[in-house]
Design goal:
The chain has helices at residues 49-62, 77-86, and strands at 11-17, 33-40, 69-70. By secondary structure, it is α+β, with helices and mostly antiparallel strands. The protein has a three-stranded mixed β-sheet with strand order 1-2-3, with helices on one face. Strand 2, helix 1 (49-62) and strand 3 (69-70) form a beta-alpha-beta unit. The chain is globular.
């Protein structure tokens, strides 16, 4: 995604199929979307671009799925704050 005032790419997301489990090779894999990365250029932070991009990606990823898992590194305080405050997500222990 691009943003006015920022040369080049201002935001990027990566969604993968996080299905885990035993399955025959010839069967389709269930769709379990995992948002692995949401990166916003520092120059574009504070403009609402992150929230806009996250909402769009989460809505698209959730099509045909029960929900979307968002992976966040617990030591990234800014990322945890973004997802809990701005996107109303709940932080679960790593084991879940």
């Amino acid at each position: 995604m691009t943003c006015g005032g920022v040369d080049g790419l201002a935001g990027l997301t990566v969604v993968a199929n996080g299905f885990k489990g035993v399955q025959a090779a010839d069967e389709p894999r269930p769709y379990k979307p995992v948002l692995e990365y949401l990166v916003i250029d520092r120059r574009a932070r504070g403009t609402g671009l992150g929230r806009q991009l996250a909402r769009h990606v989460l809505n698209e990823a959730a099509r045909g799925a029960d929900g979307v898992t968002v992976e966040v590194e617990h030591e990234r305080v800014d990322a945890v704050r973004f997802w809990t405050r701005h996107m109303q997500c709940t932080v679960l222990p790593d084991s879940e």
